[in-house]
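The step that takes the researchers longest sounds almost clerical: writing a folded protein down as plain text. The outcome of that step, for a single protein, is printed below.
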Amino acid sequence: QVQLVESGGGSVQAGGSLRLSCAASGYTVSSHCMGWFRQAPGKEREGIAAIHSDGSTKYADSVKGRFTISKDNAKNTLLLQMNSLKPEDTAMYYCAAGCTWLWAFNKFWYEYWGQGTQVTVSS
């Protein structure tokens, strides 16, 4: 049974940083495409970062240069380092696993989802 558990969310002031983690069980993080999505109230869930099994990464324009996706293979964990946070980054953040790289920002191409962790950025 695959389980993804996010942690690391919280409240931070604009310009601050947070590091999200997604611990996987029943699933080998290093061998698969994985991604981070976020969903703000009243908005669609959007893909913001993805990482291929070969380590290649891609980012949405809204987070490029500020967020970094990576994997800690020893801990079987997906990470998202978020720097220079803005109020518009406020959302529930989800990790997801099992994507098709070409559609890595399309939520319908993921097999597994975590329960989410809330990030709130105040101005």
